[in-house]
Amino acid sequence: MFTSQDYKKGQPRWCPGCGDHFFLASLHKAMAELGVPPHQTAVISGIGCSSRLPYYVSTYAMQTIHGRAAAIATGVKVANPELAVWQISGDGDGLAIGGNHFIHAMRRNVDINVILLNNRIYGLTKGQYSPTSPRGFVSKSSPYGTVEDPFRPAELCFGARGHFFARAVATDAAGTVEVLKAAYRHKGASVCEIMQNCVIFNNGAFDAIYTKEGRKKNTIYVKHGEPLIFGENNEYGLMQEGFGLKVVKLGENGITEKDILVHDAHCEDNTLQLKLAMMDNEHGFPVALGVIRDVDAPTYNGSVHAQIEEVKAMKKYHNFAELLETNDTWEVK
User: What is the value of pTM for the model shown?
Assistant: First the structure.
């Protein structure tokens, strides 16, 4: 049995109130509940505020270079498939310079747990807009507002043929721990988007859902096999309308719980899962939290090792000495 203390190390050096503090506590708790020993765990990061996290876990850990966390994490997992590998990236580190590695880790389905700590800003370099900053966002690098649309992590993950996507809010410890445990249990590339405020350069980015009261009003916790119901008193639900979704109120127009869509995280067709993941408050929908997609598929690391064994079985040699003996040999005197 492990406790959170078994995974703690050092004194975190983030700004007071930073979402990274909340997430780190949840990660420690999730690791303890999963019970994977520290020496069988590796935490890999790139560069950025969130990428300091490897210094604060008592596991194998490595802070690598900007945008390359997924590449290093892939190598770690392929070299030692027994390790539980967690990749920690910010929205800048993971989706800007690291965007190419991100999509290929998804496409290959490498068995790593990608944690995307999304605060919609570059914090370490003092407040430039990031790939997830909204159009019109004013920052040090966009003083008149950005003139581009942002990446939405779920859309990028699904478009790269990702098989697992979950979302949580940093201040929601219970919700964060649950998605982290689900990500570990999924065999293949998993992405957990953690929404959090940067208290210095982008405070309030997720204010509508950052408090418990806000989440009751403005989010929906999706659970596989359960109806998509939400609201302070579970008075609203989601129904399909044409090719989209619509919000309905239970009891109105004869609508009952039987009319509400049931969440299917395991459906290979990601159409409805993507629609759930793309909902936002601006368009009258709740923000979806929890495990949105969780579909089994062959893993890259598993396939690599299976291929190695298959090739070895077909060969007449299994080491260098045997290789030399498979052809004609001469002795030079």
Answer: 0.94
